[in-house]
Specification:
Shape: elongated
Distance between the termini: 82 Å
Number of helices: 6
Radius of gyration: 25 Å
Largest sheet: none
Number of strands: 0
Helix content: 55-70%
Structural class: mainly alpha
Strand content: under 5%
């Protein structure tokens, strides 16, 4: 899509509508959806896949804060035995989820599929595009979220195996002292 070349749409004027409540004059919801469809192999509405991982990231962030508070409470009661192991592991998950959300949102903003004026998603400007958008959230978004959760589960599994291997390889103090 090419922008009109006029004095009001020069470099400084190009972003003058960024914080307006209405789209700029050159904007057409249909053209963005058609461009999206061309880029995505003819499928319109491929613009909201980041919403599913964003929802999971919000929940995971809340869970991390609750777990951190509980682990801090246990550390103060039981000493240094509880080190915040699950807080660290949930931080891994949140880093992967929020990083993916940020990259996907940036990509969708770059291609004009997410805009700074309501309703923010170009697929929601025409009622006919809402169905394909929801389908995309449920297929691509949930698939990406499931892959992130699977990778995180593998990371936690490897970390747990390494932690157990380190504790089992430490010599017992009684056997060093002669079994007393």
């Amino acid at each position: 899509m090419s922008l009109p070349r006029s004095p009001q749409h020069a470099c400084n004027g190009l972003f003058q509508h960024t914080f307006d409540r209405s789209p700029p004059a050159w904007y057409s919801a249909g053209s963005h959806i058609q461009n999206s469809a061309k880029r995505h192999g003819g499928r319109a509405g491929d613009i909201a896949c980041f919403i599913a991982p964003a929802g999971v990231a919000i929940v995971a962030t809340i869970v991390q804060k609750v777990v951190k508070n509980k682990e801090e409470k246990l550390t103060s009661e039981h000493g240094p035995r509880v080190k915040g192991k699950w807080t660290q592991r949930l931080r891994w998950l949140n880093t992967m989820l929020w990083g993916g959300v940020a990259l996907l949102a940036l990509e969708h903003i770059w291609h004009g599929e997410v805009v700074p004026w309501p309703p923010f998603l170009t697929a929601m400007q025409t009622p006919g595009e809402t169905g394909p958008m929801l389908h995309e959230i449920l297929t691509y978004g949930l698939t990406m979220t499931a892959v992130i959760l699977a990778v995180w589960g593998i990371m936690v599994g490897v970390a747990e195996l390494r932690s157990r291997a380190q504790t089992s390889s430490k010599p017992d103090q009684k056997s060093i002292a002669g079994g007393a």
